[in-house]
Amino acid sequence: MVTIAACQELHQDWLKNLAGATGGRTFSTHESDWVWLPARRQLVLLYPQRISPAGIRPGLAEGMRLGAQSVSVWMNNAASYAPLEAFGFRRGPQPLWMSAPVTAPQQYSAAAAAIDPDPPEVTGPDAEELAAGRAHPRSAWHLTTRGDGKLTGRAWVYDPSVAARPPHAPDPITGRPGIPAAPARKPRKGSLAGIFGLSVGPSSRRRGYGTALLSRAAAVAAAAGADRLAINAAPAGSELCAARGFELIGRGQYLFLDLR
Fold this sequence. Notes:
There is one protein chain. By secondary structure, this protein is an alpha+beta fold. The chain contains six helices and twelve strands. The chain has helices at residues 4-21, 53-66, 82-85, 124-128, 209-224, 235-243, and strands at 25-29, 32-37, 42-46, 70-76, 90-91, 96-101, 113-115, 140-147, 150-158, 192-200, 228-233, 247-258. Strands 1, 2, 3, 4, 5, 6, 7, 8, 9, 10, 11 and 12 form a twelve-stranded mixed β-sheet that branches. The protein is globular and about 50 Å long. It comes from Arthrobacter gengyunqii. InterPro entries: Acyl_CoA_acyltransferase, GNAT_dom. This is GNAT family N-acetyltransferase.
């Protein structure tokens, strides 16, 4: 059974991986763990159990020193966010943690989605973060959907267990450059992969692209050896995820502070 704690740990791993791939870093203050994402000029506070001014003040000071333009906080729904309001944080949309076996979304067509490590249309911070898909051994894969030759959507698949394999191990999805995709690994019971940053352009919604991304992500996760998927869905996207086999396992909290 997938727990909220497992989803939160997966999310933390993903953000730390993203920071490492883009020249960022992680650091800790009193009871607070932070990730610096330089491409977005964003500081992130990761799932504090208790908000302590002794941890928040030095964290924000370090963010200002680094040049942060915004600060985000991801929290368990059971934790109190009230102390953050004193620092000017505001609540954002409530994230919904959902999970499904990798077999569920694969029942739907993935034809419009593909692994796409360097799409030319992706620019700015998103382009800088494509570096997360170039590490070896690879643990993250960037996906896109296209319609009429145009980019319509994108998402990331992340399986942290792949990073623990020997550095000379082949990419579990593609084998290695120029070689056909490797056979799917036998799923590891309890192994959890994540879908992050799934988005479809406003003019392309309700045309199957979100479904294709979920289906392709499930296939990639299965090939890497995961047997379950987690996604941190926004309220607007939870209906699609539920229709494609994902079940709600818990709710979180998201807060933000604009430093500009």
